[in-house]
């Protein structure tokens, strides 16, 4: 099924079930040749899953030379390399049958592709057998013209239960983050974008953002309707700092239809220079709403 009861509940609340059914026709299990070619051009992949030991949901960044992610079957992608040992998803992606969501996003072309399924370890990394494959529109994606791979050595990961003032500043300066959610039969990784300041840090343990209008599928909010666990991933696109947050999220619906998501932080893992990619400055999406 494209939608479970959580997504259906949100679609009905907003009044977009018919539109969601139409958009959902583009969701499949197979990886088309154009999608396979897109994957092989990417230097990064975001994966979201639950830690098998704690149940906490995290989103993590994987990088490599183009071709490190590739389609190795009509319903399978293979990833060369694994997360570092201090990555909160290291155990999940090394296990058999982990429910995992992935998103490949190319800032150069403002294209993105999501593939959700089950992972299994391989000799050189891991593979994901797809249950759901689909693309999203370029809405709210910032264009970054180019990147270079620099010789960074990731620093030691630091862990805490809340955000420091510096980390809160990184969050509030972000124009992009990634969001991992789960439900009983799957996991998903999605993208959120906007002008800097679209995410607010109301304290060391509370974030909020407006849920901008999208494709009406409500996969993310539907997952949160069924299971509030979530993981957020913020990147410093210049320095390579990788900031991962885990916690719970809930959506509030205003009478005028506007939605706000509030995220409660329960864990933070920051890796200085965790990404070897240095991207050019952004050209903000013309779809980004103006901020007050």
UniProtKB/TrEMBL annotation:
- The organism is Streptomyces kaempferi
Q: What is this protein called?
A: Pyridoxamine 5'-phosphate oxidase family protein
Q: Where is the Pyridoxamine 5'-phosphate oxidase N-terminal domain?
A: 165-259
Residue numbers spanned by region Disordered: 146-166, 271-292
PANTHER family reported in the protein's UniProt record: FAD-BINDING, PUTATIVE (AFU_ORTHOLOGUE AFUA_6G07600)-RELATED
SUPFAM superfamilies in alphabetical order = FMN-binding split barrel
Q: Which InterPro entries match?
A: Pyridox_Oxase_N, Split_barrel_FMN-bd
Question: What are the Basic and acidic residues biased-composition ranges?
Answer: 146-156
């Amino acid at each position: 099924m494209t939608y479970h009861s959580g997504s259906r509940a949100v679609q009905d609340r907003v009044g977009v079930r018919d539109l969601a059914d139409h958009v959902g026709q583009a969701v499949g299990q197979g990886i088309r040749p154009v999608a396979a070619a897109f994957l092989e051009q990417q230097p990064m992949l975001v994966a979201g899953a639950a830690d098998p030991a704690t149940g906490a949901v995290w989103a993590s960044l994987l990088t490599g030379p183009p071709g490190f992610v590739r389609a190795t079957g009509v319903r399978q992608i293979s990833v060369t390399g694994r997360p570092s040992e201090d990555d909160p998803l290291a155990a999940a992606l090394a296990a058999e049958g982990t429910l995992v969501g992935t998103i490949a996003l190319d800032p150069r072309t403002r294209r993105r592709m999501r593939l959700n399924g089950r992972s299994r370890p391989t000799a050189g990394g891991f593979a994901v057998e797809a249950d759901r494959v689909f693309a999203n529109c370029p809405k709210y994606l910032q264009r970054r013209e180019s990147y270079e791979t620099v010789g960074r050595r990731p620093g030691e990961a630091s862990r805490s239960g809340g955000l420091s003032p510096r980390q809160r500043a990184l969050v509030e300066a972000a124009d992009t983050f990634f969001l991992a959610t789960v439900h009983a039969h799957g996991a998903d990784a999605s993208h959120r974008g906007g002008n800097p300041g679209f995410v607010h840090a109301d304290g060391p343990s509370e974030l909020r953002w407006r849920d901008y209008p999208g494709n009406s599928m409500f996969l993310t909010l539907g997952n949160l309707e069924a299971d509030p666990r979530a993981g957020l991933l913020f990147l410093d696109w210049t320095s390579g700092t990788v900031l991962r947050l885990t916690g719970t999220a809930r959506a509030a619906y205003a009478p005028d239809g506007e939605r706000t998501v509030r995220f409660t932080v329960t864990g933070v893992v920051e890796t200085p220079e965790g990404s070897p990619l240095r991207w050019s400055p952004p050209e903000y999406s013309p779809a980004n709403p103006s901020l007050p």
